[in-house]
């Protein structure tokens, strides 16, 4: 019996969002390949659901809720909580407090745990990348993506960045072979972003998308970029991310490797010059 594996896609509700797991490849005559792919995809969903059981702030019996309510100590809950708690402490230091899992007065890792869970679950897919016919795999959790490809594969994921003013339009397209892409902003959920330093919500329409090695890092620094705003790229210039794009009030700023990328402008009047290269590089600030 033969099996074709042009694309395997599974969509499941997990962690309050929609998670899509996809494996791409070419035709293969080995039915065992499909069975291993199906098992790996199921393992991804199972891991994320179990992480939800531990970390959900909406479940009164979750480990995080028991810790928050003083019914358990950190040493008495699932070891994954300490792992994420340690990560949150480091991120609070790295971001200068722009990310702070304790800003409400208790430990709430919501801002990082989904990405952390995606990264952990993605290990279930690494084994299938060496199977015959498999070229790439991905996990998309509500628009935040971990992208993988097989050794020697030339597969490229083209990730569209939605226009905050028009969800049917694309602001930019990012080509990623391997890594993670995450977006934070107010376009879909309104003024839900809060600056922990002032405890005030971020006003207006803003969007930030970041490319990094892991979803946890990309997600946190996308939030930092959205919170600090389009006029100040200093907080993300030295961040451990590959590149990013920030949109606010029709303005766009992009950076890569700590360097801002902008359209080439005339040094005298600032206008775009036709026939010239459309991008220049300058230091981000």
In which range does the helix fraction lie? 25-40%
Q: Strand count, sense and closure of the main sheet?
A: 10 strands, antiparallel
Any low-confidence stretches, pLDDT <50, length ≥5?
264-285
Give the SSE string. Answer: EEHHHHEEEEEEEEHHEEEE
> Over the alpha carbons, how many angstroms does the gyration radius reach?
20 Å
For the secondary structure, the number of strands is 14
Instruction: Examine the secondary-structure arrangement and name the CATH architecture of the largest domain.
Output: Roll
| Overall outline | globular
Judged by helices, strands and strand pairing, the structural class is alpha+beta
Q: What features would you highlight for this structure?
A:
single chain, 285 residues, alpha+beta, T-fold, two-stranded antiparallel sheet, 6 helices, 29% helix, disordered C terminus
């Amino acid at each position: 019996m033969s099996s074709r594996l042009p694309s395997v896609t599974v969509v499941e509700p997990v962690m309050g969002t929609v998670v899509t797991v996809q494996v791409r490849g070419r035709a293969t005559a080995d039915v065992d390949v499909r069975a291993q792919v199906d098992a790996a995809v199921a393992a991804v969903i199972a891991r994320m659901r179990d992480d939800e059981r531990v970390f959900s702030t909406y479940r009164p019996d979750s480990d995080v809720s028991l810790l928050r309510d003083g019914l358990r100590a950190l040493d008495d809950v699932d070891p994954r909580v300490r792992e994420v708690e340690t990560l949150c402490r480091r991120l609070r230091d790295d971001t200068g407090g722009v990310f702070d899992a304790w800003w409400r007065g208790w430990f709430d890792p919501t801002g990082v745990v989904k990405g952390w869970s995606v990264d952990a679950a993605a290990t279930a897919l690494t084994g299938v990348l060496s199977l015959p016919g498999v070229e790439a795999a991905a996990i998309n959790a509500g628009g935040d993506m971990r992208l993988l490809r097989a050794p020697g594969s030339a597969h490229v994921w083209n990730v569209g960045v939605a226009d905050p003013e028009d969800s049917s339009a694309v602001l930019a397209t990012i080509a990623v072979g391997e890594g993670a892409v995450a977006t934070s902003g107010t376009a879909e959920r309104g003024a839900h972003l809060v600056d922990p330093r002032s405890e005030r919500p971020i006003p207006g329409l803003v969007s930030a998308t970041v490319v990094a090695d892991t979803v946890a890092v990309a997600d946190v620094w996308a939030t930092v970029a959205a919170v600090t705003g389009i006029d100040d790229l200093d907080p993300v210039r030295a961040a451990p991310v590959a590149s990013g794009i920030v949109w606010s009030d029709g303005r766009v700023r992009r950076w890569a490797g700590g360097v801002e990328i902008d359209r080439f402008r005339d040094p005298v009047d600032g206008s775009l010059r036709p026939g010239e290269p459309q991008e220049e590089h300058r230091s981000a600030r």
